Amino acid sequence: MISNNQNWDKLPWIKINLRILMLQKKIYIASKKCNLYYLYKVQNYLMNSNEAKVLAIHKTLEYISRYYNTYNKEQYVVNNYDKVLILKFLYYFEYLKNQIFIKIIENIKQYLLYLCIQPEWKAKFSKKIDHYFYDLDLLKINNYTKKYYFNLHIIQKLRGNKFITQSIKNWLHNNHCINFDHISKASFQKNEMKDYSDTSIILSYLYRFLNKIILIDYNWYFFYNLKNNFILKRIKSKNNYILYINEKNNIYLYSLHKIIKLTLYRINHFNYLKINSSLKKNTLLYKFSIILQELYKLKLNFISLKKVKITCFIVNKSLHHWLKKHIKINNYFIKYKKNYINIYNDFLNRDIYNQNINKYYVEYFLFLDNR
Q1: Least enclosed by CB within 10 Å: which of 141, 162, 186, 271?
Q2: Rounded to whole angstroms, how far apart are CA atoms 331 and 140?
Q3: Higher pLDDT residue, 58 or 124?
Q4: By the 8 A CB rule, do 348 and 289 touch?
Q5: Secondary-structure percent of the chain, ordered helix, strand, coil, rounded to 5
Q6: What's the pTM value of the predicted model, to 2 decimals?
């Protein structure tokens, strides 16, 4: 326990931060695994830990001092006794008579809860989208209706730790999700906090984070819309013929059939399809994995699971038919190919995932640029 005369600058901050990071990592992993029981357990532990309380007090008071030093050219220092007093009454501030301490404690508790929910929701965020929206003031709540629906939506999404959800609900309802940055004419000396609604407020950590949580629905909606969007493309293939692909109909399947035929068969002098006997059996699966990779990349705006299953069915059926005509299928050949099939399937699955994500981001930022 910290004594009244303890110098806070000499606290073991490295150990304190390391301890908090370790707990946040556990929350992050539990959120990734959807292990809600363990997630809430670690959140409660972090919220009641002295390390998190001390860090929240230190950060909040540091922001206050930075504000006055930057905008008023004044320096205010909270002594160690007051810091310990805040620490003792952090969850029992109703016993304090000092109103400025009560307002400071509200912001300290907000930072404390931010430490608890940040790793939980970070596991659900997209890094690129999250970074893009970080500096945008998208949610300007100018009237009661907007504020009400914003608060209601946030509470519905934060169905988790009861104490955290209830605390955020109270802060949103009372409009307490603010920071000390850019507070209008606040006076520490007069022991009062004046109105700050007429200034450009830099949103607090917690409030910014709530904005990001709201945007998760928007991101998934755009991803869903991209999945169902079909785009007409003009593509020149390696075989020097032009395909016009529209995902809305079966032209993609026609293109797939044609590519398979041109790969497995050749056209003779009488314009008939004949087996391409020059193909090497050992490299056939590799060749098809490359062909499918290029086909997905060029011709599909979004690679759905249904499309993958149809593609695999057509390729497998075509390969089977080609092998029946080309060689005698035996158990040895089938066993020989099993490992290769697994390897190339994994390769294609990873490529499909990467292509979907990359195309999503490209389309997303093009959409944002054209707004």
Answers
A1: 271
A2: 68
A3: 58
A4: yes
A5: 65, 5, 30
A6: 0.48
